[in-house]
């Protein structure tokens, strides 16, 4: 019975996140205009634009390698895997053993790397500059990610996302170290969402796939930070539909909060601020790892 509930919760989760990704993209196109006091565009405008792009032929550099041709599809696949593994409303789904936090962040990082390589493969000047900037940020972002994950895994006694979230809910993690590591990851999530677009040279189906990957990546980051920082209300798969409903309401609340915070953050985003955020994330991750080690040493 527990396995059946885990399977049902997993399938429901996959359906919900695939539905939420376009809704989140629409909300992020509307919310900044509201915050600035301007008339917002139609909620579905981003996806209407993509439908128009589907009618166009994808223009590719004849000299592009297989990396450039496959990157949009691979990016969508990687982002889809990540967003389907990160829990939304319930823990203990059948994918729980596969939710190693280090692996999930590596999947998201691999998707970004594929897009950087694809842009460099096209030889586009503006896209290449954005790709180079993304690569420079990754030099600081990757150590911050690993240190933050190390701190959280050390505090929770395991590296799976379910284990870390359960430890947060049970109050079994040192609040100072957990808060520093979580804040570092939140800054990295903002930096990832605020990165300049690299798909300026794409069109047609390639651009559509790139935009879908962006929407899935943003949802993955929102779900990940929400689960690590505000996991309250999350149910367990074996608790049944009534507890799932409570978890679903909590998940919707976290997404609405993420839309507001992310919209406000994106409205003030700039290259220097993104770099400063990544540097600050590295500092917070180092402090979180030091406190986690000190706490374990003292215990």
Outline the structure in words.
The structure is a single chain. The chain is mostly helical. The protein is globular and about 55 Å long. The two termini are 39 Å apart. The chain has one domain.
- Walk across the major sheet and give the strand order: 1-2
Number of domains: 1
Q: Work out the strand percent.
A: under 5%
By secondary-structure content and strand pairing, the structural class works out as mainly alpha
SSE series: HHHEHHHHHEHH
Give the number of DSSP strands: 2
On the 0 to 100 scale, the average pLDDT is: 82
Stretches with pLDDT under 50, minimum 5 residues: none
* CA-CA gap between termini: 39 Å
Largest sheet data: 2 strands, parallel
What is the molecular shape? globular
> What Rg, in angstroms, do the CA atoms define?
19 Å
Helical percent range? over 70%
User: Number of helical runs?
Assistant: 10
Furnish the topology, listing elements before pairings.
Blueprint: H1 2-36, H2 45-54, H3 66-85, E1 90-91, H4 101-122, H5 125-156, H6 161-170, H7 175-194, H8 204-229, E2 235-236, H9 241-267, H10 271-298
Parallel strand pairs: 1-2
Helix pairs in contact: 1-3, 1-8, 1-9, 2-8, 3-4, 3-8, 4-5, 5-6, 5-7, 5-10, 7-8, 7-10
Quick recap:
This protein is mostly helical and 299 residues long.
């Amino acid at each position: 019975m527990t396995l059946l509930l885990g399977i049902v919760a997993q399938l429901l989760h996959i359906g919900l996140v695939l539905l939420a990704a376009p809704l989140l993209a629409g909300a992020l196109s509307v919310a900044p205009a509201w915050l600035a006091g301007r008339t917002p565009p139609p909620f579905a405008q981003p996806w209407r634009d993509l439908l128009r792009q589907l009618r166009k032929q994808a223009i590719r550099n004849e000299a592009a390698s297989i990396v450039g041709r496959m990157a949009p599809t691979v990016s969508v696949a990687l982002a889809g895997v990540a967003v389907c593994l990160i829990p939304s409303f319930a823990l203990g789904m059948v994918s729980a053993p596969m939710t190693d936090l280090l692996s999930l962040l590596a999947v998201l990082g691999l998707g970004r790397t594929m897009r950087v390589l694809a842009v460099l493969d096209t030889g586009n000047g503006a896209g290449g500059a954005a790709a180079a900037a993304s690569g420079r940020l990754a030099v600081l972002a990757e150590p911050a990610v690993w240190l933050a994950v190390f701190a959280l895994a050390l505090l929770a006694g395991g590296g799976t996302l379910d284990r870390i979230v359960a430890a947060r809910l049970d109050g079994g993690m040192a609040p100072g170290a957990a808060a520093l590591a979580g804040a570092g990851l939140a800054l990295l999530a903002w930096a990832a969402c605020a990165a300049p677009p690299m798909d300026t040279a794409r069109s047609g189906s390639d651009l559509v796939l790139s935009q879908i990957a962006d929407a899935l990546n943003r949802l993955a980051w929102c779900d990940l930070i929400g689960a690590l920082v505000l996991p309250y209300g999350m149910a367990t798969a074996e608790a049944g539909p009534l507890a799932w409903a409570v978890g679903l309401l909590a998940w919707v609340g976290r997404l609405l909060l993420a839309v507001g915070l992310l919209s406000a953050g994106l409205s003030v985003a700039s290259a220097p601020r993104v770099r400063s955020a990544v540097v600050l994330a590295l500092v917070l991750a180092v402090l979180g790892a030091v406190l986690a080690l000190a706490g374990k040493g003292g215990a």
